[in-house]
Amino acid sequence: MSKTVSSDHIIGILPARWGSTRFPGKPLHLIAGKPLIQHVWERCLSADMLSEVVVATDDERIFHAVEAFGGKAVMTSPEHPTGTDRLAEAAKHLPHATHILNIQGDEPLIDPTLINELARALLDDPSLHMVTAANPLDPGDTAVADPNVVKVVLKKNGHALYFSRSPLPFFRNPVEGLPVLRHKGIYGYRRDFLETFVTWEPSPLEKAESLEQLRALENGASIRVLHTEDTSPGVDTPEQAREIERILSSSSNQV
Question: Which SUPFAM superfamilies match (predicted)?
Fold first, then answer.
């Protein structure tokens, strides 16, 4: 796939690792007859702000599967400590990329409109280092206390103030209209910022929370957070894969 957006080249990169404690080989797990990674790739093709979509993998089985369904893949080292490091290595294979979107390779229902909105935000504000997204949570939702669900609070200008696995904010006092926001794991970067980011040592808050984006905040970067109603589920277990297949089958029957 190759699309042109003025002189800017916004590349969507889908990280796809073979190793997973809960779900080994997840990217190639068949859902409705297609590998999981193919579903994500096809959704990204509908985002017309992307000049190209590329899968970054550490496994030749995934690499060859992507090529077999007509996609583009690049091999990356299996030794990367973080997903951002993998992203930066993949970007070296794409020297024409001016902006890079890190799109989770396990979200087969990701909304192409959200991808376009993140890309547009990067183009509209050249001073912006990073952009990401968050959707509202009911303060009473069990996800608020779930450490696997990352929360974010914002500055008045819509940029991230802090991310945490803990309840955030902690409502010692009720505040009308103050939202609880669930962070979605999708990021957009200016290329030069991504290259700088991976030269920084892991920061104290990053290591405490195990959240890479805190390294950016601790080093003074600006991260704009877009509000979205996209609550598309990811796939972390075989059970979740079966639920995605049910959703896709239901959608096909309604067409």
Answer: Nucleotide-diphospho-sugar transferases
Dihedral angle computed from the Cα positions of residues 205, 211, 217 and 221, in that order, rounded to the nearest 10 degrees: 150
Q: Backbone phi, then psi, for 194, in 5-degree steps?
A: -60, -45
pTM over 0.85: yes
Q: How do residues 178-197 score in pLDDT, each as one tens digit?
A: 999 999 999 999 999 999 99
Residues contacting 62, CB < 8 A, separation 6+ = 16, 18, 27, 28, 37, 55, 73
Q: C-alpha angle with apex 235: 234 to 240, nearest 5 degrees?
A: 115
How far is it, in rounded angstroms, from Cα 143 to Cα 210?
A: 18
Cα–Cα distance, 17 to 109 (Å, whole number): 19
